[in-house]
């Protein structure tokens, strides 16, 4: 598979999983957490999917497309290892949806970050919340959720928190 094919499939998988998750959280109150703003593409898609939800964005240093910059109050800059543990104080209610797109070119560092992130998210997510991620995460109380049929196993990941 060419890198172009791979990139297209990755973006299609992101969209399919986010679309599916957005439909599943209709009865779950709470904000959305977007981990990894990057260019802002998935943030922009989440805004379109969930226009009435607050979306809190975590990013080391926000450099997104200007049309996809979150409002200042919804942007938490800094390393996840500092901002995620402190995030509970900013949330009025636990999150209904988390999207974590955190991968970098450094596979070992990405795997270590994902291993740390799962347990760190546990205090921030509501019962019935969905977690969609580019890396496999292990969250206490989270169960693997079936991917949309168009998404190959391992390309993206979905968890649902037990009620
Ligand atoms: N979903 C984004 C989009 O659609 O444009 C792309 C996200 S990009 C793959 C990953 C982002 O995660 C990068 O912007 C990077 O700066 C951020 N990131 C990775 N590790 C981080 C960390 N430890 N703390 C804060 N941000 C981090």
Could you describe the 3D structure shown?
The protein has 163 residues and is α/β, with parallel strands linked by helices. It is 33% helix and 21% strand. It is built from 4 helices and 7 strands; from the N terminus they run αβαββαβαβββ. It has a 7-stranded mixed β-sheet, sandwiched between helices. β1, α2 and β2 form a beta-alpha-beta unit. The chain is globular.
Give a brief description.
The chain is of the alpha/beta class and 163 residues long. The chain has 4 helices and 7 strands, in the order αβαββαβαβββ.
Average pLDDT? 97
Strand order of the largest sheet: 3-2-1-4-5-7-6
Radius of gyration: 15 Å
End-to-end separation in angstroms reads 40 Å
Strand fraction equals 15-25%
Q: Name the poorly predicted regions.
A: none
Helix-strand pattern: HEHEEHEHEEE
Largest sheet report: 7 strands, mixed
Number of helices: 4
Class by alpha and beta content: alpha/beta
Tell me the helix content.
25-40%
**Ions and ligands:** S-adenosylmethionine
The counted number of beta strands is: 7
* Molecular shape: globular
SSE topology sketch:
Elements: H1 3-24, E1 32-35, H2 41-49, E2 55-59, E3 75-77, H3 80-86, E4 95-100, H4 107-121, E5 125-133, E6 142-144, E7 157-161
Parallel strand pairs: 1-2, 1-4, 2-3, 4-5
Antiparallel strand pairs: 5-7, 6-7
Helix pairs in contact: 1-2, 3-4
The protein binds S-adenosylmethionine.
Characteristics:
163 residues; globular; 7-stranded mixed beta sheet; 4 helices
């Amino acid at each position: 598979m060419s890198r172009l094919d791979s990139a297209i499939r990755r973006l299609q998988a992101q969209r399919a999983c986010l679309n599916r998750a957005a439909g599943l959280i209709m009865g779950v109150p709470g904000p959305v957490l977007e981990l990894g703003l990057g260019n802002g593409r998935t943030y922009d898609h989440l805004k379109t999917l969930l226009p009435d939800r607050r979306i809190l964005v975590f990013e080391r240093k926000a450099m997104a497309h200007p049309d996809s910059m979150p409002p200042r109050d919804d942007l938490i800059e800094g390393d996840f290892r500092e901002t995620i543990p402190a995030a509970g104080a900013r949330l009025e209610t636990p999150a209904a949806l988390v999207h974590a797109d955190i991968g970098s070119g450094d596979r070992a560092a990405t795997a270590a970050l994902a291993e740390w992130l799962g347990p760190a998210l546990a205090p921030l997510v509501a019962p019935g919340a969905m977690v969609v991620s580019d890396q496999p995460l292990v969250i206490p109380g989270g169960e693997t959720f079936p991917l949309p049929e168009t998404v190959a196993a391992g390309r993206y990941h979905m968890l649902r928190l037990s009620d």
